[in-house]
Amino acid sequence: MVSAAATLVETEDAGSVVLTAAGEWLVATAVETDRRLRTLELPKNRRVTIDLSGVDRIDTAGAWLLLRTEHNLSDRGNAVELRNLRPIFVPLFDQVRAGGQLAPCTHPRPAHYSLKGYVGRIGKITIGLFWRTYSILGFVGLVSSSTLRLALRPGRLRLTPLIAQMEQTGVDALPIVGMLAFLIGVVIAYQGADQLRRFGAEIYTVDLLAVGILRELGVLMTAIIIAGRSGSAFTAQIGTMRVNEEIDALRTLGLDPVEVLVIPRLLGLLLTLPMLTLYANIMGLLGGCLMAWGVLGITIPQFVRELQYAIGGRPTLWIGVIKAPVFAVIIAMIGCYEGFQVSRSAESVGRLTTLSVVEAIFLVIVTDAVFSVIFSMLRI
Q1: pLDDT tens sequence for the chain (380 residues)
Q2: Any residues with CB less than 8 A from the CB of 348 and at least 6 apart, and which?
Q3: How far apart (Å, rounded) are the C-alpha atoms in residues 203 and 182?
Q4: How far apart are CA 73 and CA 75, in angstroms?
Q5: Which candidate, 320, 311, 281, 296, places its Cα nearest to that of 185?
Q6: Contacts of 165 (CB under 8 A, 6+ apart)
Q7: Burial class (CB in 10 A: 0-12, 13-18, 19+), 77
Q8: By the 8 A CB rule, do 349 and 342 touch?
């Protein structure tokens, strides 16, 4: 015999309300049963009897719905009684009554939505930024002391990891750096020519290219590309080693993780980023030269002569190159620092890899702005 679905019939009996439950009170029909229970409209301060004699099967969801109905009616002032509960169901009801949340769940207003919570959140973020700055500076000091010890004992420098890092951060980055620098040169030449043509000064597109690429965009674009490419790789590699406890193994073997992992990456990027910057400058000027030739009719000899005039006697080229080692230190330090901050989970590797790219790019742009202000004050 198939049992009926869960039902709850309301009747009157000697001045009290009787709710007769019958059928199967199971989780499969809990949604529909809950909807019907919420539509009950019983008079307040009346005696209510819930008759469970007709219940054939019941699980935790069904028991919770009945006990929640009992709780809600009691809060309204009704005297509630559960009657004719089968002995085999008593332990289930006792367990649900002891551990179930029968009162309606409340959703308090989040603290940060209030003025006090907002101010507290700002203070927490500010303190976190100060602590992070202090931690990064401490890491920079640790790397500096390890580098000084290595300079006093250069025989400890491992050339194989250094050359491998130079290959990964420099040689392998040539295609993407060259392509993007070439396209940047094309864009600047095209947009500059479009504006300068109005004044009949198309030849000054070469000056715009020289100043824009050699002084700012060449090194800045290269640093941003390397931050996204190599800085993230530093964090992911060192972070994965922390997850696999390889860094603890290095310490167990008596090796300094900073000397083994950080310094080769730092020196490798320090040596390759200036060369990548020069390469990006050449590719950017090449792209601008081809665009000026194709659109403006400026021949290559004319382009070269105007380029010599634009940068002759000025440190335009070296201003960009001087920035490269500073940007290299920032990218390497941030990438390695975030790698050492990885916890024992794969999730933190991805999160801190993303954070290292954002921090490195932000600090590179801020440092470039500081350089611009200093050079402007020095009239360079």
Answers
A1: 444 677 878 887 767 788 888 888 888 888 888 888 888 777 777 788 888 888 888 888 888 888 888 888 888 778 888 888 888 888 888 888 887 655 555 555 565 567 787 888 899 899 988 998 999 999 999 999 999 998 888 888 888 989 999 999 999 999 999 999 999 999 998 888 888 888 878 888 888 888 889 988 999 999 999 999 999 999 999 999 998 889 989 889 888 899 999 999 999 999 999 999 999 999 999 999 998 888 888 888 888 888 888 887 778 888 889 999 999 999 999 999 999 998 878 888 989 999 999 999 999 999 999 999 998 888 87
A2: 239, 341, 342
A3: 20
A4: 5
A5: 281
A6: 264, 265, 267, 268, 269
A7: exposed
A8: yes
The structure's pTM equals: 0.69
- Joined tokens for residue 162: 């250094």
Side chain identity, residue 230: S
